[in-house]
Amino acid sequence: MMERWKGRVALVTGASVGIGAAVARALVQHGMKVVGCARNVDKIEKLAAECQSAGYSGTLIPYKCDLCNEEEILSMFSAIKTLHQGVDVCINNAGLAHNEPLLSGRTEGWRNMIDVNVLALAICTREAYQSMKERNVDDGHIININSMGGHRMVPSADEHFYCATKYAVTAMTEGLRQELREAKTHIRATSISPGIVETEFAFRHHNSDPERAAAVYESIKCLKAEDIASAVTYVLSAPAHVQIGDVQMRPVEQVS
Q1: What is the pLDDT of residues 51-87, one digit of tens each?
Q2: Which of 56, 63, 129, 162 is catalytic?
Q3: 193 three-state secondary structure
Q4: Which long-range contacts (CB under 8 A, 24 or more apart) does 214-217 make?
Q5: Is 217 a catalytic residue?
């Protein structure tokens, strides 16, 4: 069922590493034109070359964009419209966490998490929908890479504000689904909520304590970024009348 997406345009935010890179690769493999954005596109350019060398039928187009800056997001969507007509699939993958507890955290860290995890996702969603609407695309898909932290609170002060932003993603995905129904479109909205995934995430989160970050991944057999990419292609492959609202996935050994 991924055949129908061949030649269509997907935007993947945070595509330079981890889940975003794995999703971008998988969609290119299935013949999509993928715009992969990040603040630093060096790794996306390398991934694009790898995809080309592998003979994948799609293409990966790197795009430099700071998702904390709305003007840059709007410019990106304008460029996609000019060069590729518009966005048919939007994968809101970019996200980050800072060790900023509720009782002692820095406002700057909280604001950065809201800017990337919540506001950028909302802006990209709005612009992707408008892109679909103006081209009469009625089968588009908006997929939010959420977290199990968006469904239950992790008993760790370092994670509480991050979890709050992911609860917002859970609420926004359901709100989006309802608004799309009210608009009488067949555009679908899905949230994919992974548990522990072995990527660079923990090392960025615990950047002052690499041993703690490594311990996160050594304690159990974690999910891989490719597992999340498989979930994305599964969701995109669902028949047009099937709405997959939320996919929760965690390692078998993960406790909560």
Answers
A1: 999 999 999 999 999 999 999 999 999 999 999 999 9
A2: 162
A3: strand
A4: none
A5: no
